[in-house]
Amino acid sequence: MKNNDKNKDFFTKVYEIVRQIPEGKVTTYGAIATAVGIKSSARMVGWALNAVAGDMSIPCHRVINRNGELSGKNYFATPNMMQEMLESEGIKVIENRIDLQEYFWVPEIQWYWNQFKCNLVIINYTLLCLLLIECKIILKILDNDRKKEV
Questions:
Q1: Residue 118 annotated as catalytic
Q2: 123 pLDDT exceeds 80?
Q3: Among residues 60, 118, 129, 135, which one is catalytic?
Q4: What value does the mean pLDDT take over residues 107-119?
Q5: Does residue 115 sit in the same domain as residue 98?
Q6: Which structural domain, as residue segments, surrounds residue 123?
Q7: What digits encode the pLDDT tens for the residues 38-67?
């Protein structure tokens, strides 16, 4: 796999996690990196989010640094935009900092649970298909047996 493909896959996972951050909660670059499976890649999470600056479908304003600081605020249209967006969701920002004990959201649990649910859907779909195939085979056998009796 090329390095660009790895980055694209990493970035896609980052965006999936960021989209799951509930309104009124924040998480950190490091927590997202851990959830993606590369604990030491907090900086790369920042690069991924910088690549989609301005895309309002990805709530980048909910990602802060490990100290609770709005370290990404300079990547928004105005220096105060990140804080204003967070405050509009009910998050208190005091001196460019957020209380992580009050507002922190842990992505790992959500990320792995969503992956597990997705795998369950695939497994259930596969089992349903196999069951339908088996039913068709049984019906064909029964139909053949009925034809033999007539």
A1: no
A2: no
A3: 60
A4: 61
A5: no
A6: 107-150
A7: 878 899 999 999 999 888 899 999 999 999
